[in-house]
Amino acid sequence: MGQASLHPGTDFLYNVVMEEMAVEQPAEVEDTAPEHPTVVGLAEIADRLGVRRGTVDQWRWRGELPEPKWTVGGRPAWHWPEIKQWAKTTGRGKGRR
Fold first, then answer.
1. What's the whole-model pTM score?
2. 96, 88 in Cβ contact below 8 A?
3. How many domains are there within the chain?
């Protein structure tokens, strides 16, 4: 037999509450989650288009690169499918993926 309860009838309530709280725990999250493949920064754009980072910087400085969709960690970020389409229609990049 278990330990005597200080308040009669509370063991049942305690067990019900504990069962309700016993939800499946999420799997542990890795310290570094994989990057979202469609959100890209300047370095990823350069890498995926097969050009130097400085080239992408020039496109942006000249206003040729589409405006970023987001800011991630204080840096501009773009939606890769939009950049890929832009590169295709403007003939930018080498070996576009």
1. 0.61
2. yes
3. 1
